[in-house]
Amino acid sequence: MTWRENGLTRRLGLGVPIVQAPMAGGWTTPRLVAEVCEAGGLGSVAGAMLPPADLRAFVREVRSLTSRAFAVNLFAPLPAPSGERLEPWARLSDLAEVPAPRAAVPFEDQLAVVLDERVPVFSFTFGLPPLSALSSVDTADGVFVIGTATTVAEAVALEEAGVHAIVAQGYEAGGHRGTFLAPVERSLVGTVALVPQVVDAVSVPVIASGGIMDGRGIAAARALGAQAVQLGSAFLRTEEAGTGPEYRAALGRDTTVTNVLTGRHARAVRTPLVERLEASGVRPPDYPLPRLFLKEPPLLVGQAGAMARALPARELMAALAAETDRAIGGISGVA
Fold first, then answer.
1. Cα separation of 140 and 164, whole Å?
2. C-alpha distances in angstroms, 107 versus 78, 156, 215, 258?
3. What is the pTM of this model?
4. Domain locations in the chain as residue ranges
5. Which range among 23-37, 45-59, 119-133, 237-251 shows the weakest confidence by mean pLDDT?
6. Which GO biological process annotations does it have (predicted)?
7. Which sign does the torsion angle of CA 98, 262, 244, 276 carry?
8. Strand spans (E) along 183-250
């Protein structure tokens, strides 16, 4: 058995244990998901911000481009925002008036689409959503469920809830933190420290995430006991990603974990706006309201974003596999 094959890859029919992270906000496109799947990995639809009709259309477009398994990712339901601190936040954001909040997309309606479209893999972050709706299809051929943990305690809670695999999200990862049990400040564990502890604490497959950009990182994650890796920032410069020139150029800049962009902690590029909002000392409105005050989408990226490559997704997947072969061969002394 090589690094490419294990129980998780066999269960999902993957050629390589590489998961493309779901990146909400338009950066994950149907073509990106499909191209990763066609290259042997698991592409992920970022469904969290999509109304049910748009999510259904996205899923069907992916299906028109690939016959392989793919995932749909949703955010676990969160308490409704209070609507407090909107006016001071508008002034800090240089807006003349407070933008009108948009109605939240009901998680139950999104999950209904996942089930109705018979999506093979369902992943989630931000907590523990109600999984009872999946029980009727939770069979060997039913929905495969993946949860996200940032600590060992969260991983244990996810396994007890019945997930089939766990993404161990290290501190280096870009985008929103999946933390849900303890404050974010006490849940910032690096990938190298987090993955082996989670592997030792649970019996389900672990997927390493955070700072993994090439074959060296994949080899390291497999050596730590992860059955697969999840890469997000590595795909932001691919031809199929929905990122524009400004986003692609920003991938090499300093990042920070902050809650001023969306109301929930996320790793993003440190911009003058981020620094000004943080320096104000004003607590941002509840998630996801601060996003309404942004003139441009937040530049969410991991600590190793500078290593992202401008390649077609299939070529990147092939390069990752070849690099991992070389890295593992070098470690074993057969390269």
1. 11
2. 9, 23, 36, 25
3. 0.95
4. 7-84+105-251+305-332
5. 119-133
6. response to toxic substance
7. positive
8. 206-209, 228-231
